Amino acid sequence: MKSEMEQDLFKVLVTEEQLKRRIAELGGALYERFAGKNPLFLGVLKGSFVFMADLVRACQLKSDVEFIAVSSYENATVSSGRVHINHDIQQDISGRHLIIVEDILDSGNTLAFLKDYFLTKGAASITIVTLLDKPARRTKAVTADLVGFTVPDEFVVGYGLDYAQAYRNIPYIGVLKPEVYAGQ
Ligand code: 5GP
Ligand code: MG
Ligand code: MG
């Protein structure tokens, strides 16, 4: 029997198996770049929390973990363009090698803002890792250093990504049936 969440899905875009394989590759690439450098993984809440947990275990670097909470969406499927910091990091990041971990790079507003924000706080380097990249909708000139999967211009959920705060705990990436968000 399909779960109540799965009944809302139109299709699966990235399977659990594909996620696992690709995240192992990303972990390997990060290990090669950052072994011996004590990087700081900085997850962008809430969407990155599942990816973050798997990514840090896939690369076994001596490192620490922080989270920043931002929002720009307000329950709609299109960005408002403004980025709010809802919860800031608690430690000094000057001189640190930052690995920003994002769920999806869409318009680029969030990552363009965060890159500037952490550069002015004195990060030694900033590396952007995004699980998903949706290049079709980019309005800011920002690129990720490492991308898990490039996705088409569809609103995706699962593996940390929400629609109106739900569906984050689906263990893979899928697309909702249009009737689920009709009327927005
Ligand atoms: P931006 O437009 O600033 O690049 O994207 C910011 C945030 O919008 C992402 O981190 C993510 O939380 C949300 N977002 C963008 N595209 C999607 C999508 O297809 N599905 C979901 N669930 N969130 C998205
Ligand atoms: Mg995000
Ligand atoms: Mg969201």
Account of the protein in words:
- α1 (16-34) crosses α2 (49-59).
- The protein has helices spanning 16-34, 49-59, 109-120; strands at residues 9-14, 40-45, 64-71, 84-87, 97-105, 125-133, 146-150, 156-157, 173-176.
- α2 links the parallel β2 (40-45) and β3 (64-71).
- It has a domain at 16-70 and 88-152: Rossmann fold, CATH 3.40.50.2020.
- It is of the alpha/beta class and 184 residues long.
- The protein contains three helices and nine strands.
- The chain is 23% helix and 29% strand.
- It is globular.
- Bound molecules: guanosine-5'-monophosphate (5GP) and magnesium ion (2 copies).
- Residues 44, 47-48, 102-103 line the site of one magnesium ion (MG).
Layout of strands and helices, then pairs:
Blueprint: E1 9-14, H1 16-34, E2 40-45, H2 49-59, E3 64-71, E4 84-87, E5 97-105, H3 109-120, E6 125-133, E7 146-150, E8 156-157, E9 173-176
Parallel strand pairs: 2-3, 2-5, 5-6, 6-7
Antiparallel strand pairs: 1-9, 3-4, 8-9
Residues 47, 72-73, 79, 102-110, 134, 155-157, 161-163 line the site of guanosine-5'-monophosphate.
Short description:
By secondary structure, the chain is of the alpha/beta class.
What is the makeup of the main sheet? 6 strands, mixed
Uncertain regions spanning at least 5 consecutive residues: none
CATH topology of the domain at 16-70 and 88-152: Rossmann fold
- Fraction in beta strands: 25-35%
Strand order of the largest sheet: 4-3-2-5-6-7
Overall pLDDT metric:
93
CATH class of the domain at 16-70 and 88-152: Alpha Beta
What is the straight-line distance between the termini? 29 Å
Count, helices: 3
Helical fraction: 10-25%
CATH-derived architecture of the domain at 16-70 and 88-152: 3-Layer(aba) Sandwich
Identify the bound ligands. guanosine-5'-monophosphate, magnesium ion
Spatial extent as radius of gyration: 16 Å
Structural class: alpha/beta
Overall geometry comes to globular
* Beta strands, count: 9
SSE run: EHEHEEEHEEEE
Organism: Pusillibacter faecalis
Pathway: Purine metabolism; IMP biosynthesis via salvage pathway; IMP from hypoxanthine: step 1/1; Purine metabolism; GMP biosynthesis via salvage pathway; GMP from guanine: step 1/1
Family: Belongs to the purine/pyrimidine phosphoribosyltransferase family.
Protein name: Hypoxanthine phosphoribosyltransferase
